[in-house]
């Protein structure tokens, strides 16, 4: 494969517990492709090879909103992801899974272990933690020590909308929470980071918004004027500037309409390629990927930026995570 056709997938999940994943999908009105469960590395590698994906950055599924993330399970998944990177050199990187963020000390310890011992490529966060009125979005003041540490490390954060139902039922069985709610959760987290001043204050953190930011590009102008009117000290232009400082990945979002809108919002050096596999089928991934290639067909430099160059600049050590011994055994299935 020629260098210009190489792809780096920054949105690719690890499903360690097939039964748990299937149960969660049922609860939120979604159906994980049966052929992808139980997930194994070989399933991902086969799809990567078919799609021409050189390296995939693994992340946990975005279900960590209940407060039940046990530190031992988090540590187990991070070690496993690091082992995958060593077993398949150059094929995998990973975003570290973190405990429930209210556990500030436990989260800081996992960040240190993931970066310093395992060599993680970044950390995965969701838009909010907790349920109902007790839920907190990621820019909550409680989480400032976590952001301070990530800022000190110049870390990359992969920010995914939480699979959190709204106060009303999702409207139709074909419009479950991942379709109707997750994109708006991504927007709410991004907007909270901006209007609170956290995005500007912790400017050394590079934040990737999933699914082209969900509804972020379309609602950012609304936030710019109305949040300023409501008391945000940032000017409308400063608010727009901070929204433009995110990175945006293409999973389940690449279409002529959305990509055209993104071009008026951010330059091509802010776009990254993503698939959301194995949460969706390879047929779905291929449809979005074809849309992306068609859109940039006459602009090979923009296509190369999106497909791999931006990722290589953002992750200079991609695929070089440190090995954690698993007794010398090859990884073939889940942990």
From TrEMBL:
Top-rank lineage group of the source organism: Eukaryota
InterPro entries reported in the protein's UniProt record: ACMSD (IPR032465), Amidohydro-rel (IPR006680), Metal_Hydrolase (IPR032466)
Xref: SUPFAM superfamilies: Metallo-dependent hydrolases (SSF51556)
Keyword Secreted: no
Keywords linked to the UniProt accession: Decarboxylase, Lyase
GO cellular component: cytoplasm
Domain called Amidohydrolase-related: residue spans: 8-316
UniProt entry tagged with the keyword Lyase: yes
Gene Ontology BP, a term: secondary metabolic process
GO molecular function: carboxy-lyase activity; hydrolase activity
Record PANTHER family: 2-AMINO-3-CARBOXYLMUCONATE-6-SEMIALDEHYDE DECARBOXYLASE, ISO-OROTATE DECARBOXYLASE (EUROFUNG)
Family membership: Belongs to the metallo-dependent hydrolases superfamily.
Protein name: Amidohydrolase-related domain-containing protein
Originating organism: Suillus discolor
């Amino acid at each position: 494969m020629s260098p210009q056709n190489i792809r780096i997938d920054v949105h690719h999940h690890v499903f360690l517990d097939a039964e748990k994943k299937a149960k969660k999908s049922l609860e939120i009105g979604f159906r994980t492709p049966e052929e992808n469960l139980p997930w194994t590395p070989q399933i991902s590698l086969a799809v990567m090879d078919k799609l021409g994906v050189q390296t995939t950055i693994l992340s946990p599924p975005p279900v960590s909103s209940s407060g039940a993330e046990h530190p031992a399970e988090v540590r187990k998944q991070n070690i496993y992801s690091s082992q995958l990177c060593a077993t398949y050199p150059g094929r995998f990187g990973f975003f570290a899974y973190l405990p429930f963020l209210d556990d500030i000390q436990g989260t800081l310890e996992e960040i240190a272990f993931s970066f310093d011992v395992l060599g993680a490529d970044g950390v995965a966060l969701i838009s909010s933690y907790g349920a109902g009125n007790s839920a907190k979005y990621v820019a909550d003041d409680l989480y400032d020590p976590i952001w301070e540490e990530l800022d000190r490390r110049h870390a990359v954060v992969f920010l995914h909308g939480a699979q959190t139902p709204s106060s009303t039922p999702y409207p139709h069985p074909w419009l479950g929470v991942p379709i109707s709610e997750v994109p708006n959760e991504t927007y709410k987290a991004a907007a909270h980071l901006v209007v609170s001043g956290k995005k500007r204050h912790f400017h050394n953190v590079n934040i990737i918004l999933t699914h082209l930011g969900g509804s972020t590009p379309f609602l950012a102008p609304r936030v710019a004027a109305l949040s300023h009117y409501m008391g945000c000290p940032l000017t409308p232009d400063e608010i727009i500037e901070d929204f433009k400082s995110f990175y945006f990945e293409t999973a389940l979002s690449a279409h002529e309409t959305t990509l055209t809108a993104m071009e008026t919002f951010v330059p091509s050096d802010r776009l990254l390629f993503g698939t959301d596999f194995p949460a969706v089928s390879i047929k779905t991934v291929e449809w979005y990927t074809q849309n992306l290639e068609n859109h940039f067909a006459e602009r090979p430099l923009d296509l190369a930026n999106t497909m791999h160059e931006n990722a290589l600049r953002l992750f200079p050590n991609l695929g070089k995570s440190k090995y954690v011994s698993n007794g010398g055994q090859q990884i073939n299935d889940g942990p």
